[in-house]
Each structure stands twice: as structure tokens, then as C-alpha cells.
Design goal:
Blueprint: H1 7-30, H2 38-58, H3 64-87, H4 98-123, H5 130-167, H6 172-176, H7 180-199, H8 202-237, H9 240-244, H10 248-266, H11 278-289, H12 291-309, H13 313-339, H14 344-364, H15 372-385, H16 396-402, H17 404-421, H18 424-432, H19 444-449, E1 452-455, H20 463-474, E2 485-491, E3 500-506, E4 511-519, E5 522-528, H21 540-544, E6 558-560, E7 563-565
Parallel strand pairs: 1-2
Antiparallel strand pairs: 2-3, 3-4, 4-5, 6-7
Helix pairs in contact: 1-2, 1-7, 2-3, 2-4, 3-4, 4-5, 4-14, 5-7, 5-8, 8-10, 8-11, 10-12, 10-13, 12-13, 13-14, 15-17, 16-17, 17-18
């Protein structure tokens, strides 16, 4: 088959991709469509990245039609999943679901490389074999990595040149490298050029692959010895020591995953040729046969955690990874029991089938079918409804921090129920979802006033004090006042008959207070230490019920000369 590359086509696609990505980037910077709609933005960005990348790694002059026939539908499927992930960012003024976006990028990359090697194998019109799929996957991975390395070095050279010209007071090139309309297309062209270079030296890529595989060949026996040593020691130590680590199942699955990866790297051929002598071969043989034990240990640990704390996104991922590793391990065990030394025939069949399973799993986790955020939200709410956890101990912050849109929707529904059973928790939920995108405007002060509670009454506080506090809160660039509740308390703290002005700031993370006073006609504040042993994050009812009093310090201050000592013991 003619493997000659269509160089003009690759360069043209790189340029078009650069222009499209530049437009998408500018839409984000200048806040116009599609950046204003996460569904369209994520979908279009996914299509603009995945379609050219997969085409670059697959296309030759003789398979252009076949490449388009299979790559385009897959890229559309991934972009549709991207649209769904983008939908999980809604409503965007309240939600920043970065976790879902990061997971999508990672899983879409894995799915793309998996799909690519099957498409390449199918287009070649050769019989599907694991050894060929393995070679294609390593080629794609190494070429992809080398291209990014080339782009990184190229970008460094451009910056070096711009810096040298800047020394000569020629700022043109330095300013040019700050322009997205220049940087993005140029880097895309560099990537397309790198694709042409490295795909034309496949033999070198295969040599790098061989070197890496040789290293793994020497590491596999050592890993197997560690694995067998762990299993031999386990009956004497018990599982208790493993669970005390808090990550026992994770450690076990890592060991299992590394063993499977190393085994697949070394035993990639379907032939009966043994890469080791008989002793080492038997050692690896036994290690592979015992891999299902790790699946049993890890699922037991996961079951204990889920039974005790319910499902979370991390535990959903752990179950999925466990299922995939277990299928590999038990598949190999069946092959060993049936074929014994000829088990490599089964290994090839299992790997081909499981490759498709991994591809499907990486796609489904970005769909409604395996939306781990939704599954986790339902699990935690079920525990609340069944009385396994109280409303006080329920982790509201986890819904806002880790469950994105699904957490937001479920908590909005839960608020209706909280009105009857625990109304103070509604304020905690409302603080979690504040619009950080609202710009400061003339109506903001009236909005700020809705967050204020006064005691004993609003008239007790000077109007200019409210303005000073508002200005101070709005000047904070690292936070927004919309996530806080403010309590203004007028109370005489030094028995001089004149009330002091205390402003208590409450949010879901801390409760703090400042005492305000006038000094030379200007308002100043002093921070007040806070002792909150119960971690109370809702004191509005206590203030409205006038549960306010002064407390004399248990220990007076000690003064020696001009030095004063203050006891900090509560």
C-alpha cells in the first residue's frame, strides 16, 4: 500500500484548524457566540481539535476517502458528547464544572486513540490482530508526543528570538507573539509540519517503541515478584493494614493495572515464542493467573466504602476501572486454564474485545448513560432520605464542588424539602451558587443590602458606615460579597454607654467579625478573634431572637511595665 503523505492537504488542514481555533479563542476572550453558549463552544472546539488530529495520524494519499468515511463520523460522535458535557456547565452563571471538562478531555483523548488504531487496522484490509493494534497504538502515541515536543521547542525558539530582538529595542516580534491571531495558526502549522516529518520516519518511531518495550521487558519480572510477594504476605497481615491506608483499593488496582500493561507490552505477539527463560516465564505465568485475586480484594474494599459513605464520582470511576481490569484478568485466567502455555491466543482475543470495551466506556462516561455526577448525587440523596445521614452532617459543599449541574439541580429540589425540616440549610445552599459574572453597577448597593441583617435595628448604624463596608467588599478581586451574609450588631462592649459597631461576615467556610470605629473622622476596623467550636454557619436566627450578650474574659490581661500579656485560652 502507498503510504505517501498528502503534504499540501495536511498543511491546508493545519491552517484551517488554526483559523477556527483562533476564532473560538477570540469568542472566549471577547465573550461572543459560541463562548456565550457552553454547549456550542465545547462541541465546536471538540470537532475542531479531534477531526484534524485523527486525520493527521491516519491519512495517506491512497486512503483519503476511507479516512474521511470513518474519521468524520467518530469526530461527530465525540463532538456531540462534548455538547452534552458543555450542557453540564449550565446555568453557567452559577456553575463552574471544570471537573467534567477535564474528564472529557482525558477520556476523549483515550477514546480517540483507541478508535484510531481500529480504524487504521480496518482501512489496511488486514486481519485484525492484537500485535498490529499494539504496534499502531505505540506509533500513534509516540508520533503525537514527538509532535508536541517539536511544537514546544519551536515555541521556545520563537520566544528566544523575540527576546533577543527586544534587547536591541525591536519590540515588534515580542508584541507579535502576544497576538492570538498569529500564535495559534503558527503553532498549528508547526504541528502539521511535525506530523509530516515524523510519519515519514516510521522506522525511527518503531525503534523508539522497541527501546521502551525492552525496558518494560526487564521490569515485568520485578513487578511480578513484588505482586507475588504482596499476595504471599497478605494472609499473615490481613486486610486491616491495607484499609488503614485509606487508599488500599487504589493501590491494589494500580498494581494490577501496571502488571496488565507490562504483560501486554511484552507478550504482544500471538506466536508461542517466549521472551524469557522457562523460570521467568513460569513466574510471569503464575503472576497473571493470580491477578483475579486483586479484583476480589479491591471490590471488597470498594464495597465497604460505598456501604459506609455511598457513591461519589471517585468511587464510580473506581468501579468502572475495577470492572475493566477484572474483565482483563479473568479473561486471561480463562485462557490459562484452557490453553495453559498457549494462553497467548486467548490474550490476543481478550485484548481486541476489551479494547473496544475501553473505547465504549470512555465515550459513555461523557453521556447520560454513565453520568457519574448524577449517579453520585442520587446516591447521596438516597442516604439522606433513608436516614443514614442527618441534615447537619450532609455534605452540601460536595454537591457544589464536585457534582456540577447535577449537584445544582438536586440541591434546588432539596431546598423545597428543607423549608420544613431544616430551613437554616437553605442559606448554605444559596451561598454556594452566586453569580460571579455580574458586573458592578448602580444597583449593586441595593443588592448588597439584601444580604444584611441589623440588630437591634438599621437606624442604629450610620449610613456612611454601610457605604464604607460596601466599597471595601466590592474592591476584593479574589472573592465576591454575594457568597456572604453580613450581620451588623450594635453592642456596648466596654461599658461606656456607647455602642460599638460589629460587622460579622458569614459564609460556608468561616465566620469572622470586625469592630468598626471612627478615628480622626475616618472609619477604621479591628479584627476580632472568633471562637466557633460547633462550626455554626447560620447565626441569623440567633440574632433575630436577640440571643446577644457580652461575655467578660475569664482571665484579665497582665501588664509588666509597658508590656501587656493577653491570655488566649478559651
Amino acid at each position: 500500500m502507498d503510504n505517501k503523505l498528502p503534504k499540501p492537504l495536511i498543511i491546508s488542514i493545519s491552517l484551517i484548524q488554526g483559523i477556527v481555533l483562533t476564532l473560538l479563542y477570540q469568542s472566549i476572550e471577547q465573550n461572543f457566540w459560541p463562548a456565550t453558549n457552553p454547549v456550542w463552544l465545547t462541541s465546536l472546539a471538540t470537532l475542531a481539535i479531534s477531526l484534524p488530529l485523527l486525520t493527521f495520524l491516519c491519512i495517506t494519499q491512497s486512503n483519503i476517502k476511507e479516512t474521511v468515511k470513518y474519521i468524520v463520523p467518530f469526530a461527530i460522535v465525540v463532538s456531540l458528547l462534548g455538547a452534552y458535557v458543555g450542557y453540564q456547565q449550565e446555568p453557567k452563571e452559577y456553575i463552574n464544572n471544570g471537573t467534567a471538562m477535564a474528564v472529557f478531555c482525558f477520556t476523549a483523548l483515550i477514546a480517540s486513540f483507541k478508535a484510531l488504531m481500529y480504524i487504521q487496522q480496518y482501512i489496511s484490509n488486514k486481519k485484525v490482530s492484537y500485535s498490529t493494534l499494539f504496534k499502531l497504538s505505540w506509533r500513534n502515541f509516540i508520533i503525537f508526543g514527538e509532535c508536541w515536543l517539536f511544537v514546544g521547542i519551536f515555541w521556545g525558539i520563537l520566544n528566544l528570538g523575540a527576546g533577543l530582538f527586544a534587547v536591541l529595542e525591536i519590540e515588534f516580534f515580542k508584541e507579535l507573539l502576544k497576538k492570538d491571531w498569529f500564535v495559534i495558526p503558527v503553532l498549528n502549522l508547526a504541528f502539521g509540519f511535525a506530523i509530516i516529518v515524523f510519519r515519514n520516519i516510521i522506522h525511527t518511531v518503531d525503534n523508539i517503541s522497541t527501546i521502551l518495550q525492552t525496558l518494560i521487558k526487564f521490569l515485568l519480572p520485578a513487578l511480578t515478584i513484588v505482586s507475588l510477594g504482596f499476595l504471599i504476605t497478605l494472609p499473615f497481615t490481613g486486610l486491616g493494614a491495607l484499609w488503614k491506608t485509606g487508599s488500599g483499593s487504589l493501590l491494589v488496582m494500580w498494581l494490577q493495572a501496571l502488571t496488565l500493561f507490562f504483560v501486554n507490552t511484552v507478550y504482544q505477539d500471538e506466536s508461542h515464542q517466549r521472551p524469557y527463560n522457562l523460570v521467568l516465564h513460569r513466574l510471569v505465568f503464575i503472576g497473571v493467573a493470580l491477578l483475579p485475586i486483586y479484583s476480589l480484594i479491591s471490590i471488597y474494599g470498594l464495597w465497604l466504602r460505598i456501604e459506609q459513605y455511598g457513591l461519589t464520582v471517585d468511587r464510580c470511576w473506581a468501579i468502572l476501572v475495577w470492572a475493566l481490569l477484572a474483565c482483563f484478568s479473568f479473561g486471561y485466567l480463562v485462557g490459562i486454564l484452557r490453553k495453559r502455555d498457549a494462553w497467548l491466543e486467548t490474550l490476543s482475543s481478550v485484548n481486541i474485545a476489551m479494547g473496544i470495551a475501553v473505547l465504549a466506556a470512555m465515550l459513555l462516561v461523557n453521556s447520560p448513560i454513565l453520568n457519574f455526577q448524577y449517579i453520585s448525587a442520587q446516591s447521596q440523596l438516597s442516604r439522606l432520605e433513608e436516614g443514614k445521614i442527618s441534615y447537619d452532617d450532609f455534605d452540601y459543599a460536595y454537591f457544589g464542588r464536585s457534582l456540577g449541574r447535577q449537584g445544582y439541580l438536586q440541591l434546588q429540589t432539596l431546598k423545597e424539602h428543607l423549608k420544613e425540616v431544616s430551613p437554616e440549610k437553605i442559606a448554605i445552599i444559596d451561598r454556594m451558587y452566586v453569580n460571579h459574572q455580574v458586573e458592578t453597577n448602580e444597583n449593586s448597593f441595593s443588592e448588597f443590602e439584601t444580604l444584611l441583617t441589623f440588630w437591634p435595628r438599621k437606624e442604629a448604624f450610620p449610613e456612611d458606615l454601610l457605604n464604607v463596608i460596601y466599597e471595601e467588599e466590592t474592591e476584593r478581586r479574589w472573592s465576591t460579597y454575594r457568597g456572604n451574609t453580613y450581620y451588623f450588631v450594635a453592642q456596648d462592649l466596654n461599658d461606656d454607654g456607647i455602642p460599638e459597631y460589629i460587622v460579622i461576615t458569614e459564609n460556608n467556610y468561616q465566620t469572622s467579625a470586625d469592630m468598626w470605629f471612627k478615628n480622626n473622622g475616618k472609619w477604621e476596623s479591628k479584627y476580632m478573634t472568633t471562637h466557633n467550636p460547633d462550626e455554626n454557619r447560620y447565626i441569623k436566627d440567633s440574632i433575630q431572637d436577640s440571643e446577644i450578650k457580652t461575655v467578660k474574659p475569664k482571665w484579665n490581661n497582665l501588664k509588666v511595665g509597658n508590656i501587656e500579656f493577653k491570655a488566649q485560652v478559651n
